[in-house]
Amino acid sequence: MASSPLPWNLLYLLLFSPFPQSSAITCQTHRITKGFSLTASFNKHVPLESPSREFAFGFQRIKSDGFLLAVWLNKIPEKTIVWSANRDNLVQEGSKVVLNDSGLILTDQTDKRIWHTDTFGVGVSYGEILNTGNLVLYDQISAISWQSFNEPTDTLLPKQILSRGKSLVARYSEDNYSSGRFLFMLESNGNLVLYTRNFPQNAPNYAYWKSETEGSGFQVMFNESGAIYLQAKNGNILKYLSMTSSSMKDFYQRAILENDGVFRQYVYPKGGDPTSSGWHEFRSESLPSIPPNICTSISGEDTAGGACGFNSYCRIGVNQRRTCSCPSGYTFIDPSDPVKGCKQNFEAQSCDGEDHDDLFEFYSMEQTDWPYGDYQHFKEVDEEWCKKACLSDCFCAVAIFRGRECWKKRVPFANGMMDPSLSGKALIKVRKNDSSPGHPDKNDRSVLVLIGSLLLSGSVFMNLLLLLAAFLVAFYLNPKSKAIQPNPVASGINLQVFTYEELNKATNKFNEQLGNGAFATVYKGVLPSEDGNLIAVKKLHHLVSEGEREFKAEVIAIGRTNHRNLVQLIGFCNEDQHRLLVYEFMSNGSLANFIFGPSRPNWHRRMRTAQGTARGLFYLHEECSIQIIHCDIKPQNILLDDFYTARISDFGLAKLLKKDQTRTTTGIRGTRGYVAPEWFKNLPVSAKVDVYSFGIVLLELICCRKNFEAEAQENQMILSDWAYDCYHDRNLKLLVENDEEAMADIKRVEKYVMVAIWCIQEDPSLRPTMKEVTQMLEETIEVAVPPDLPSFTSSF
Question: Where in this chain does the record put each Protein kinase domain (predicted)?
């Protein structure tokens, strides 16, 4: 029931009080009457608050672009906006919102009307913001004449209903609140649909997800328990969009159509530590975000550029988020808005009739496709034929080769995606490095040689030598010149020396944190090159020595490594007290996110991950110039690149850390659950400690669960003990229950479990080397029956 109007004595005070309006607003908190006004100001103004003070209504400044009249969550640091009035027309300082007989009216600083509530001629008496976040206006008999819950922007809140004909429109980007490219709508026929919205401009809308409830869908409900569902007019639930089995009373909740076109639900703990809490996506394996994979969902021909624009491709990266990338030879048209697509950064092949195919080559991208826009299709051909056909065709920019079929495509190519479900590969035609525009051809070289000969034969050459000598003397006498001179690190390796300021700028002042550990924090960055390559910058906290020479020597040792299953070190910073390592960026995150996430990765990919990790460790132990013992092998230190290839990270860092870093007990390095028993017995530590840790990781890969789970049945809490019991009892199917691919390959499951049991033997001498492990996993040598496994080996 609506609240009754304000008492006359309070109304008199509000209307005729000599105090400023902000003071009146502070007193009345959640309710407003006619004559109420708020002014957009750079100085903090007092907004209208709900009785619980959890929601507020007023002006929010959006960076330097202007002000948004909005409702937001008021008790959390993020001040998350859940509704806005003028998303497509931000106002400037001095703009006002007032309440009069016809409702709320927003005007800019010139008194031009920007927005108003449509109450269909019904008078307005007063308004308030409720504890649900709903901004409500009432008429003279306290009936609702308008409410923000009926005019949503991109967000739904608990107790909010999305009725037929109503929709959510995604914002344009994370920090641009204007109407974006996607629409979530309950159509008048009862079908709940996700649409592209004029994406790109002048393209028709494309439905990339449907509830298939024509004729029956009536409204979308979001209840306080966290369930979001589509129901019929008679109250029957037709489809759950989200559902939780636990209480949500201690959490703020919201569901939002995000700027990447995915409908997601989030929760935020109430009263938590503001430095550690935050919005967390809520999803389950049975009810993932909608759609689960935006890259492959937006694949209709009518979507033109696809999920990421022309000449680009979309892939699902860390935390199931869409990532837009450019193929080799292409760069973003607008790096701040990747969805605008990519452009060629080389001169295209000429169609002048001359043969230029020797100036081009192909960059191969596995599991990648641009499914539309091909203009020629060939069958029963091999990959080399496909490449030659594209090379000889000046219109061909990319060729798709799959199953002895070849498709040729011209620019712009559209609907690009990279996904494990895709077979075949994309062959991107790019100009060779030594034939880029402006590079001299053979005739030009001849001219340059002639000019050089003339210079060498005359007095001009002597003058040039004198100028060069003068320049060098000035250079070496100028300390500033020396400061910016790039220092060679060591012969035979290609490491770049960065200044702290360069890395500060590349990471936007260390703004985006990728991970945090006991000894380092990792930040995402972008190199200021034309390609704009992404990097991961690891800032070390505690070092063995603050000496420049020792740090550089150890970094050089790491820099000499080069293997496809190791994360490549690009460079470092060794300036004053700053010690930072710069690595290539791994787009698909860690193995921990991969195997412990809501959805189980397929069996064959897990096998390849195990094999790749084994090969990387084999290289560190036996094939690189100096033996490197990792000492902390775990899923968090195994990263996945664009193609989900396993890449070991943090190898060699043991040499850079103080002795008490990453310890579990005195003198022990590693992480609980992965530490070899010899650490506890003061035995000599060898490469076999990595073999032990790998054995635990291998079991986690097989079962897609952590090495210790307190909530599991008592005999299943410790994974290694449970796995051995299942092996001993010939009941391995229990380990891969509900994994159809693994169940169908149970013989290989058995071999991998046997390899893992060998790896986690208590006696290091019984464990195989990583070379032997690699050979067993790749089935080049037989796996012998392992000995019994003591039950306490994984107890730590």
Answer: 508-781
Q: Write out the catalytic residue numbers.
A: 632
Q: Decide if 188 is inside a domain.
A: yes
Q: Is 539 labelled as part of a ligand binding site?
A: yes
- Contact assessment for residue 186 and residue 167, using Cβ atoms and an 8 Å cutoff: yes
- Do residues 547 and 641 both lie within one domain? no
Please name the residue ranges forming H helices in 418-519.
442-456, 459-477, 479-484, 500-506
Distance separating alpha carbons of residues 777 and 203, to the nearest angstrom = 50
Q: Are 348 and 312 in contact (CB under 8 A)?
A: no
Q: For 761-785, what is the mean pLDDT?
A: 92
Q: What angle in degrees, to the nearest 10, is found between the helix axes of 688-703 and 719-728?
A: 70
Question: Are 619 and 749 in a shared domain?
Answer: yes
Digit-coded pLDDT (tens) for 608-651: 999 999 999 998 888 877 788 888 899 999 999 887 889 998 87
Q: Which helix (H) or strand (E) holds 579?
A: strand 578-584
d(Cα 268, Cα 251) in Å, to the nearest integer?
A: 5
Residues 646 and 674 placed together within one structural domain of the fold? yes
Q: Which tokens is 578 given?
A: 């700053």
DSSP-based three-state secondary structure for 467: helix
Model-wide pTM > 0.70:
no
Which one has a higher pLDDT value, 175 or 668?
175
Mean pLDDT of 43-66: 88
Phi, psi (rounded to 5 degrees) for 723: -65, -40
**Are 634 and 674 in contact, with CB atoms under 8 Å apart?**
yes
CB 43 within 8 A of CB 20: no
Residues 141, 32: Cα–Cα separation, whole Å = 16
Instruction: Kindly list the distances between the CA atom of residue 433 and the CA atoms of 284, 330, 532, in Å, as whole numbers in the listed order.
Output: 47, 14, 17
**Do residues 360 and 431 touch, judged by C-beta distance below 8 A?**
yes
Whether 726 and 770 share a structural domain: yes
Query: pLDDT digits over 389-448, tens only?
Result: 999 898 899 999 999 999 999 988 888 999 888 888 999 999 987 444 444 343 444 444
501: nearest Cα among 509, 490, 492: 509
> Do 321 and 295 touch, CB atoms closer than 8 A?
no
CA atoms within 13 A on the CB side of 69: 27
Please state the domain count of the chain.
Answer: 6
**Greater pLDDT, 252 or 483:** 252
Q: Are residues 702 and 689 in the same domain?
A: yes
| Separation of alpha carbons 752 and 462, rounded Å | 72
Task: Work out the pLDDT band at 22, boundaries 50, 70, 90.
Answer: very low
Q: How far apart are CA 450 and CA 444, in angstroms?
A: 10
Cα 746–chain centre separation: 34
Q: Is there a single domain that holds both residue 120 and residue 233? A: no
Question: Quick one: tokens of 81?
Answer: 């906006």
Please list the alpha-helical segments (H only) found in 87-220. Answer: none
pLDDT, position 769:
95
> Band of the pLDDT at 542, cuts 50, 70, 90?
low
Nearest alpha carbon to residue 633 among 667, 662, 660: 662
Residues 713, 789: contact at Cβ < 8 Å? no
3-state secondary structure at position 39 = strand
Task: Tell me how crowded residue 482 is: count the other CB atoms within 10 A of its CB.
Answer: 11
Yes or no: say if 511 and 523 are a contact pair by the CB < 8 Å rule: yes
Residue 234, Cβ density class (10 Å: 0-12 exposed, 13-18 middle, ≥19 buried): exposed
